[in-house]
Design goal:
2 copies of one chain form a homodimer.
Chain A lengths: L2 E6 L3 H13 L5 E6 L12 H6 L13 H6 L3 E3 L2 E7 L4 E6 L19 E4 L2 E4 L3 E3 L12 E2 L4 H12 L5 E5 L3 H12 L3 E6 L10 H13 L3 E4 L5 E6 L5 E6 L3 E3 L2 E4 L3 E3 L2 H5 L24 E3 L6 E2 L6 E2 L4 H15 L13 E5 L2 E7 L2 H6 L4 E9 L10 E9 L5 E8 L7 H9 L4 H5 L15 H12 L1
Parallel strand pairs in A: 1-2, 1-7, 2-3, 7-18, 9-16, 10-11, 10-16, 11-12
Antiparallel strand pairs in A: 4-5, 5-6, 8-17, 13-14, 14-15, 19-20, 21-22, 22-25, 23-24, 24-25
């Protein structure tokens, strides 16, 4: 008789796992069932700001594979079905139909919520994702205050914007989601204010690099308020129950629409309740094969797990679609009996706000200090093309290296065209634990339209090499 | 008394060496003299096609540092002075002023050629560069037949083009210089024919990838003729002694101007005559510190040396400005008593023809077979951005990996925006001798404007991993 694989959560990690397991196992050998409490499967959450901003015309463009497509490939995908408990001893999950379905997102969900029942599994994949941080403060649960984590969130925000009265947007949080949302609002012609209680926006960068982002955003007409005074206290609502302003520690910022970009935390309560190991950042702990530690035949992946940090050691929570896809692939291979592994991350992230590209990999100064490593930092200005080639745009590269050994510890880049993906070479060098001397001598692509004769990353590495 | 460093050749390698040596040594400790037989120092030869094409307005934009600037920094740079012999026993070079100087390139050289004399050295740097391959065939030395190796070459070509009668250009050779020159001619409104006796243009790629370049060039209106029938036999001249056509094995291609893009060979006769070791590709042989093998206090770098191939082992001739600059930096550090090293190359090269970006790193199939390695190859189609993001352009990635070990052996990319510098991550992975499994799991930058959720390089690596 076929064994049964149950997948909890049908987005990047879960469905990558299911699809890869399906490729490697016959239907007579493995039955694959996936439960998804939402209305959509396998969509690009990262694309939502671009849908809101109008660069992506249509929600369905963000859906990589529909439930029907998954089913056609032999995965029994049950949409609008929430898993409410996992019993590892009985090897079963408790599920509850939540009703509704795609297309119903604008109104009440017609499908009645059903009875709970238990579904058995032989093998289990937990891919429950992450949930946005939403302050438990007055007014933050009002209509017109939007998260931007799901397609439903995106649709709700678009409905608010289509009301036509939304002229002023306040984005709470100046991280990736925050700045991408700020761009979307600018594109829609709103005046935009970004609030971040950190020293500078983009706290995934060192503050001096974050300042470059702030200055560029201000140059685009975006208001940016940071520091303790920018910490939010409440959303002040009008008589219609919709936002009028965001109240911070030291000001009140008029707002017709509020978008939350405060980041996400692992959605791991189900796993925790089942007795799975949870790390200090709230994510499920796995080994490199994405097997939940200490359990047989149970995997976890995507935004609900913690990942190994190859640079600092230890575990972090890094919710990114690219990791979720890779982890899903590794899980599916493991289900299929192969020995794939997800080795960990070096902390690479790229983003943009309008024409400004922002990238980081490795450790920030704060993280290096926390790791107790002696280090030097250098900052250089360079260009993305040979200085004489048309369209050579400036970029700033900051690099950290370990004193003594010269080991590369981190790179941040802020600039225009061609700045973001510049960190990839550094990300690979971090993975290989290269020194800045080695980075300076790497054989990177050079031609005048693509790079100065020393790539900006190598300009920084040369300078760092003289300082370590 | 100060020791004397003599540098032969004042372009990228020579002057990088001189400048770095100057930084590390006091003037009372080291006298630095450089001899340059041409009229320009420290210029970007790689930029010449863009000057000819009009993207770079002015020759002087290509000059990174003038002779005066070098002199102001304490380097005694003697322009228009050819080194005609090196005596390693007496530790002296024979020099001969050749007359002329910047600005005189359009007319006869006014400075009289001087008497030869000997100049002593304690330490020597040989940076004599490369010379373009020019067929010893009828008509190839006529006016209107141009190399494109030096600023003087560029100026001469521009004079031909400014005669106004140049309507048809034939470019002989479909490598980097050839295609960049073809773009320049297209930009100037000429009809352009490219001839290459290889199977496809861009023989630094595998033929199937070269075919993509051919098709794109043809789509731009460039005529491309390849194969044995396209081997040149002569330039047919008119009564004015200028080109009328390029005669090949099986056709005659009308031409008002002919540009040579047949590549370069090391200019190493001086070194050979002095008894320095020369490799099988005609370049000077050095160690990783760029010291000429078997000699004390003698370095060589830039287009006149062979470089170690980190992927295949053995030595190659890879004339690129980026290597020359790095080698010069290493030499200067060595002169200054530091232990810098140039570890070798992995064979990275990027180029473009109009909007088409072309990149390679590592080994081609031909080179893998020559090295006797068992291998698999995969080709994938991907895009430079998330598929749903505006401006997502297609790119083709070809990847080679060693059967059994899975070691990455080479990557080629042909595509539009963002294709070329994609090879950098692969170049670092080659340097670190990573497997395709490792490449597939690298933490590369992902966001919809910059990459699909699996970077195109990783799409290829995934596919290769299933095949090795």
């Amino acid at each position: 008789m076929a064994r049964r694989l149950v997948v909890v959560g049908a987005d990047a990690a879960g469905m990558s796992a299911a699809a890869q397991a399906r490729r490697l196992t016959g239907r007579e050998e493995m039955e694959i069932t996936a439960f998804e409490r939402g209305h959509f499967s396998s969509y690009s959450a990262c694309g939502i700001p671009y849908w809101v901003g109008g660069q992506v015309a249509d929600r369905d463009r963000l859906i990589a594979r529909t439930p029907e497509e998954h089913r056609a490939r032999g995965i029994d995908l049950r949409m609008s079905t929430e898993v409410t408990a996992i019993d590892l001893d009985r090897r079963a999950v408790r599920v509850r139909p939540v009703g509704g379905g795609p297309g119903e997102i604008d109104g009440p969900l017609p499908g009645a919520a059903g009875e709970e029942r238990w579904e058995p599994f032989d093998l289990l994949v937990v891919a429950t994702g992450a949930e946005p941080v939403r302050p438990a403060l007055p007014g933050f649960d009002a209509p017109g205050v939007h998260g931007l984590q799901t397609l439903d969130d995106g649709a709700a925000l678009l409905r608010t914007l289509d009301r036509g009265s939304a002229l002023r947007a306040v984005v709470v949080g100046g991280g990736y989601i925050g700045i991408e949302t700020a761009e979307a609002m600018v594109r829609r012609g709103l005046s935009v204010t970004v609030l971040d209680r950190g020293e500078e926006p983009m706290s995934t960068l060192d503050p001096d690099m974050g300042r470059l982002v702030r200055e560029a955003m201000q140059g685009m007409g975006i208001e940016v308020h940071t520091g303790p005074g920018a910490e939010v206290r409440a959303v002040r609502l009008g008589e219609d129950g919709r936002p009028r302003a965001v109240v911070t520690a030291d000001a009140e910022h008029p707002a017709d629409v509020v978008v939350l970009g405060l980041g996400v935390r692992p959605r791991a309560e189900l796993a925790r309740a089942a007795g799975m190991p949870i790390g200090e950042h709230g994510g499920i702990l796995t080994d490199a094969r994405m097997r939940v530690r200490g359990l047989e035949g149970v995997w976890a992946g995507g935004d609900c797990v913690e990942v190994y940090d190859l640079v600092a050691g230890g575990y972090r929570h890094v919710p990114l679609g690219t990791h979720a896809n890779k982890q899903g692939q590794v899980i599916g291979s493991g289900v299929g009996g192969q020995r794939a592994a997800f080795p960990g991350v070096v902390g690479t992230a790229v983003s943009k706000v309008c024409e400004l590209e922002i990238a980081r990999t490795g450790l920030r100064e704060k993280e290096i200090r926390a790791a107790g490593l002696p280090y030097v930092s250098v900052v250089v200005e360079s260009t993305g093309r040979a200085g004489y080639y048309p369209g050579a745009e400036p970029m700033t590269v900051k690099m950290h290296a370990e004193t003594g050994t010269g080991r590369l510890l981190g790179v941040q880049v802020v600039g225009r065209e061609g700045a973001a993906k510049r960190v990839d070479a550094a990300a690979v060098a971090l993975t290989a634990r290269m020194t800045v001397d080695q980075v300076a001598m790497l054989d990177l692509g050079y031609a005048p339209p693509f790079s100065p004769v020393w790539d900006p990353i190598q300009v920084a590495a040369r300078k760092a090499a003289t300082a370590v």
